[in-house]
Specification:
The chain has helices at residues 9-25, 30-57, and strands at residues 59-63, 69-73. By secondary structure, the protein is α+β, with helices and mostly antiparallel strands. A hairpin with a 5-residue loop joins strand 1 (59-63) and strand 2. The two termini are 36 Å apart.
Length: 74
């Protein structure tokens, strides 16, 4: 399997969803549940970082004084 550092946003989300499903089933022992939870928390932080970076890149188009659209940082 790919290292989690090499996963893109969608792959990271999918891996986190898989972990949540495993934990919800309740079939894991305590040690495995804790390991999965820790991995899920790491993935959650990575997803948060992806979203923060995306937000920084977003621009808003607004009408300038001359009626033309201008880009402004979000």
């Amino acid at each position: 399997m790919e290292d989690k550092k090499d996963l893109n946003f969608e792959e990271t989300m999918q891996e986190l969803e898989n972990i949540v499903q495993e934990l919800e089933k309740g079939n894991l022992n305590l040690d495995d549940s804790i390991k999965k939870f820790e991995k899920g928390m790491d993935l959650s932080k990575k997803i948060s970082n992806y979203l923060e970076e995306a937000e920084k890149k977003i621009t808003i188009l607004v009408k300038g004084k001359d009626g033309e659209l201008e880009e402004q940082e979000f």
